[in-house]
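User: Thanks for the earlier help. One more: DUF4198 domain-containing protein. Can you show the sequence and predicted structure together?

Assistant: Of course, both are below.
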Amino acid sequence: MNGTTQFEFLASATVSVGKPEKTLEQALEQVELKVFPINATKWKVNQPVSLKVIQKGASKADAYVSILSPKGWSQGLNTAADGTVSFVPAWPGLYVIEVTNYEKTPGEYKGNKYEAFWQGSTYSFEVGK
């Protein structure tokens, strides 16, 4: 907690070993704010990657998603009404996507009162050639 704002940082990544028993969305079910690629697979350069943002179990429309590439390029996009957004990766390597949420909602955490709540959720995945 900083001043009067409560901060919460959430992070996820794709790691594949064998055949997955759950979809990516099911694996992240307990995470309150999440951003992740739809239909997780092996992503490739110049092929579209579709992302989804979910907050408190519902698709989040008009969420600002930051996309960071392994070459330092970044782009920000807003999600559609269904919480989705797409981009085309130009380089192979590790990509990081991030979504944040800020609410002027008072509360208390471990006996400390706060006036606002900020969440940041990141997800990273590898894009191949």
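User: Great, one quick takeaway?

Assistant: The mean pLDDT is 86.
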